[in-house]
Amino acid sequence: MTLKLSVVQSATDFDKIAPMDHDAWKIPYNPQLKHFRPQFPTREQAIAYARENSKCRFEDRDPEKQFWLKVEDENEEVIGAAQWAVNIPAEGAERTVASWYPEGSEEREFAERFINGLWGFLGERVTRPHMVVHVEHRYRGAGRMLIKWGTAKADELGIETVISSLHSARGAYEKSGLGYIEEIPPSRDLEVENPSAKWKELQADDLSGCLMWRPVGRDFVVGEDKAPWQE
């Protein structure tokens, strides 16, 4: 079986990427995803939203700093996709507003506390320019290809690679040269007095993650390497 990795050049590619993206995130279950995306009653509606949203972001991207990739099989079906970006940390970054949830809803408040708590955790540690992956899927070797492309690009640019990973994906990143640095705990902001039943339901998911890191120019060496914020 031959897999082909290429950089996305046209927004029309998302007609194939969006359905794959939607279905791939179902297995294994991703407890964080619903806080980053609106929820829809049907698969078709969810895919339509993701397709149009991705097309808009693709058209508005900085092509020197943001890269969409796809992996196709021998039948030209998309079986993997990723968005890599060069991230240059800046002070006073704006807080994320979860506008995909109704204003005043508990879902919106929870999502904003979770997302901004995650960004705050990363921002306290990762203060140098780095490569970061926003979307990644693991299927028939496609995931390894997507990760390796990003780490190679980081080496070309002379910057580190930093990834906020789900626990289920940790092994794939370690096999691709990244090292596990520490666990990312759920934000302390998620603890509230007298939480409602809905809030408790949202808290019931395991929202922790893994902070992965790779130095410039080579793979992480367990027992020898430390991330710069650990030194």
UniProtKB/TrEMBL annotation:
The top of its lineage is: Eukaryota, Fungi, Dikarya, Ascomycota, Pezizomycotina
Output this protein's name: N-acetyltransferase domain-containing protein
Any one GO MF term held by the record is: acyltransferase activity, transferring groups other than amino-acyl groups
Domain N-acetyltransferase intervals: 37-177
Which species is this record about?
Aaosphaeria arxii CBS 175.79
